[in-house]
């Protein structure tokens, strides 16, 4: 009897070569700078360091958000996720109301802006940084940190401004006149209906309709314009308007602007506007457009809120304020006059 033949062994195949321990990283990751690698991990936008110059030159709309101290990064991510949805909703609402010719013009403007951006990129290809990288806008797609969700691009050019105070965030639009009050109204409706989850880090969202240099002349002009817009939207304009005024200096009362050591005695130092002066200017501006208006601190129909913006790098003697004229449903009068808290609506929804 013949012995059984041994089973044929499969041919030997060499395993694929593994990565060498000291092999260089891929070209894409290898080109990332340390701050870019950090930004990719935390998904946060850069500060817009050009904001100071633009805020002193022209008006902007935006949102001032309060949050716990040392939780600014968590609040920034949360604020972007909240704002991006409602900014897009406001854009859709406006575009639906636009006439067909307006839509065509908007498409042409968009096409022209894209062509201009492409030409800018072609010119700056040889440089180490493009123009759009240095603006700090959330929707910036030329740098890794803009991948904060391509959702942030829908936040339509909102940029994060560096502030000198903790527990505050300031997002601004490239210009003023945007419907930020309507956006905040939609946010409160979503909170009360349970559509929007209760924010964990963002306490209050103050909608800034216009910014201005904190001087009597500029503040009077800004308040007059915004209050006139409010009157135009009111149904019965013959009845007296009950209004209240709030002025928040964000703790600057204890640290008044001090004169510089090198300043001579002949130069007049511009002292920060105090509360009494601010109230007089705002009241005069309101009376100039609504003669039958009366002050009512307990149950105002509308509130004029003036918030000093502690923008980092503001020169001595200059300051920037955010101004809004808010209806009664967006404000609270106790313990002090301010914009409503986001948490109160969430608690009311849970009790239901």
What's the average pLDDT?
74
Along the chain, the helix and strand elements come as HHHEHHHEEHEEHEHEEEEEH
Main pleated sheet: 5 strands, mixed
Weakly predicted, low-confidence segments? 23-29, 93-135, 139-154, 254-269
Could you tell me how far the N terminus lies from the C terminus, measured between alpha carbons in angstroms?
90 Å
Please state the CA-atom Rg, rounded to the nearest Å: 27 Å
User: Percent helix among the residues?
Assistant: 25-40%
Structural class comes to alpha+beta
Number of strands: 11
Overall 3D shape: elongated
Query: Helical stretch count?
Result: 10
InterPro entries: THUMPD1-like
Protein name: THUMP domain-containing protein
Q: What are the SSEs and their pairings?
A:
Blueprint: H1 27-30, H2 34-42, H3 51-57, E1 62-66, H4 72-97, H5 100-123, H6 150-153, E2 159-161, E3 168-172, H7 180-193, E4 204-208, E5 210-213, H8 216-233, E6 242-248, H9 275-289, E7 294-295, E8 302-309, E9 320-327, E10 331-332, E11 338-339, H10 342-351
Parallel strand pairs: 6-7, 6-8
Antiparallel strand pairs: 1-3, 1-4, 2-3, 5-9, 8-9, 10-11
């Amino acid at each position: 009897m013949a012995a059984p033949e041994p089973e044929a062994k499969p041919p030997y195949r060499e395993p694929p070569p593994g990565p060498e321990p000291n092999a260089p990283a891929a070209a894409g990751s290898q080109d990332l700078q340390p701050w870019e690698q950090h930004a990719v991990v935390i998904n946060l936008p850069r500060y817009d360091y050009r904001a100071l110059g633009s805020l002193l030159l022209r008006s902007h709309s935006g949102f001032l958000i309060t949050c716990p101290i040392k939780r600014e990064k968590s609040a920034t991510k949360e604020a972007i996720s909240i704002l991006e949805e409602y900014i897009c909703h406001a854009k859709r609402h406006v575009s639906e109301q636009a006439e067909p010719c307006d839509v065509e013009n908007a498409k042409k403007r968009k096409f022209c802006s894209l062509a201009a951006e492409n030409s800018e990129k072609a010119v700056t290809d040889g440089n180490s940084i493009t123009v759009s990288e240095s603006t700090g806008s959330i929707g910036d797609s030329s740098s890794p940190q803009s991948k904060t969700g391509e959702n942030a691009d829908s936040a339509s050019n909102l940029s994060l401004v560096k502030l000198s105070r903790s527990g505050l965030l300031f997002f601004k639009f490239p210009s003023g006149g945007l419907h930020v009050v309507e956006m905040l109204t939609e946010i409160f409706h979503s909170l009360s209906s349970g559509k929007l989850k209760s924010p964990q880090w963002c306490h209050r969202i103050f909608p800034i309709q216009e910014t201005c240099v904190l001087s009597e002349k500029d503040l009077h002009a800004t308040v007059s314009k915004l209050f006139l817009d409010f009157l135009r939207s009111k149904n019965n304009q013959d009845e007296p308007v009950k209004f209240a005024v709030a002025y928040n200096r964000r703790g600057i009362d204890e640290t008044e602007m001090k004169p510089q050591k090198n300043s001579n005695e002949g130069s007049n130092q511009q002292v920060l506007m105090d509360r009494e002066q601010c109230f007089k200017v705002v009241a005069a501006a309101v009376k100039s457009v609504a003669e039958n208006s009366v002050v009512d601190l307990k149950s105002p129909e509308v509130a004029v809120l003036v918030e000093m913006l502690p923008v980092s790098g503001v020169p001595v003697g200059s300051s920037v304020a955010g101004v809004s004229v808010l209806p009664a449903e967006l404000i609270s009068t106790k313990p002090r006059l301010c914009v409503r808290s986001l948490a109160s609506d969430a608690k009311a929804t849970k009790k239901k």
